[in-house]
């Protein structure tokens, strides 16, 4: 930047430039001498940095650099870049007068006289903290989205692999795949409605019934206190209830005209720990002749493994009906790792 003209012209131009500089309240415009001492400090600098012109005139401009940057000699490097290349970039954290930090975006340029002699520097910067924070949030969002997509595809892959492996025919595999993936997708839909934070156990139960056409059926009697599940627990419970309802519809209490299912849950203290105690009980269904099936398919293994990832779970093949009992610490079902029981089954 050069200054030129006769004394009268310069005086008029200086007043004009001063008015422009002071009006630029969204920009900190600071001039310095060759030693880096402040020679002018506009209203934008007051707004952004917090110090007044009276505070800063004659003081080193290094005051608003962080201690780390001062130790690295960043202010001097900016001035050197301005001298050698015409400008020095300023994209870093700076300090305000109150000690808070903000992300600065700007440049330092050499200030030159008509004879091209360098007489100082001018620094122009803006507070870009908001833009940086938005960019960081977007980066984290994309990372989280990629993470969820990877996990989702891994689970779908596991469902496909195990469904095909345990199917008795291609049609059987197709039917099971469609319903299992639909159940998994429905659980995702519930979580997305709650910003992927949690889902209630009641909502997961209702969604499972809806998935196989039993929504609102009086043959499914569910009840218990409001219990919120973390994302991983919600997805696991969705698959568990899907398998339980499917099995009950084919072989259990929902396969005849008289049977029904009772799903109850409560919060109890077990060894001083708040624990979800949940029970699935099939009533008035076909009599079970064997206390244990000779072969357990993917669905049966999924039911137990999914719940055991969070606590204790056991099944009973009683003559009067199938029973599942689970005791799961609340802390585990409300915040759990990303590794699902479905993925564990494929390992």
Automatic annotation (TrEMBL):
Domain PAS residues, every copy: 13-86
Per UniProt, the keywords (alphabetical) are: ATP-binding, Kinase, Nucleotide-binding, Phosphoprotein, Transferase
* Molecular function terms, GO-annotated: ATP binding; protein histidine kinase activity
* The keyword Nucleotide-binding is annotated on this UniProt entry: yes
Which catalytic reaction applies to this protein?
A: ATP + protein L-histidine = ADP + protein N-phospho-L-histidine
Q: Which InterPro entries match?
A: HATPase_C_sf, PAS, PAS-like_dom_sf, PAS_fold, Sig_transdc_His_kinase_HWE
Alphabetical list of Pfam families matching this protein: HWE_HK, PAS
Note whether Aminoacyl-tRNA synthetase occurs among the keywords.
no
Question: What's the EC number here?
Answer: 2.7.13.3
The protein in question is named Blue-light-activated histidine kinase
Organism (species): Shinella granuli
């Amino acid at each position: 930047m050069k200054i030129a003209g006769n004394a009268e012209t310069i005086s008029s131009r200086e007043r004009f430039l001063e008015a422009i500089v002071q009006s630029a309240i969204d920009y900190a415009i600071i001039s310095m001498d060759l030693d880096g001492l402040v020679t002018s400090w506009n209203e934008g600098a007051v707004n952004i940095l917090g110090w007044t012109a009276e505070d800063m005139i004659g003081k080193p401009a290094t005051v608003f650099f962080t201690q780390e940057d001062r130790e690295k000699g960043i202010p001097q490097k900016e001035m050197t870049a301005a001298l050698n290349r015409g400008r020095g970039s300023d994209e870093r954290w700076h300090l305000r007068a109150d000690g808070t930090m903000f992300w600065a975006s700007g440049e330092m340029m050499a200030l030159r006289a008509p004879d091209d002699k360098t007489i100082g520097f001018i620094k122009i910067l803006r507070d870009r903290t908001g833009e940086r924070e938005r960019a960081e949030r977007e980066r984290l969002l994309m990372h989280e989205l990629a993470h969820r997509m990877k996990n989702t595809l891994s689970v779908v892959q596991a469902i496909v692999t195990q469904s095909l492996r345990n199917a008795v025919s291609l049609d059987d595999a197709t039917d099971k795949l469609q319903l299992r993936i639909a159940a998994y997708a429905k659980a995702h839909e519930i979580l997305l409605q709650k910003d992927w934070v949690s889902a209630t156990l009641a909502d997961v139960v209702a969604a499972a019934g809806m998935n196989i056409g039993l929504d609102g059926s009086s043959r499914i009697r569910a009840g218990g206190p409001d219990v919120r599940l973390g994302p991983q627990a919600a997805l696991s419970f969705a698959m568990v209830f899907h398998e339980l309802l499917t099995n009950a519809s084919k072989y259990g209490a929902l396969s005849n005209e008289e049977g029904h299912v009772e799903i109850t849950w409560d919060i109890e203290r077990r060894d001083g720990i708040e624990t979800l105690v949940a029970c699935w009980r099939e009533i008035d269904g076909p009599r079970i002749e064997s206390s244990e099936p000779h072969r357990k398919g993917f669905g049966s293994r999924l039911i137990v493994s999914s719940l055991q990832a969070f606590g204790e779970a056991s099944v009973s093949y009683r003559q009067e009906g199938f029973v599942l009992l689970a005791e799961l610490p609340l802390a585990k079902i409300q915040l759990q790792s990303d590794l699902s029981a479905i993925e564990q089954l494929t390992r």
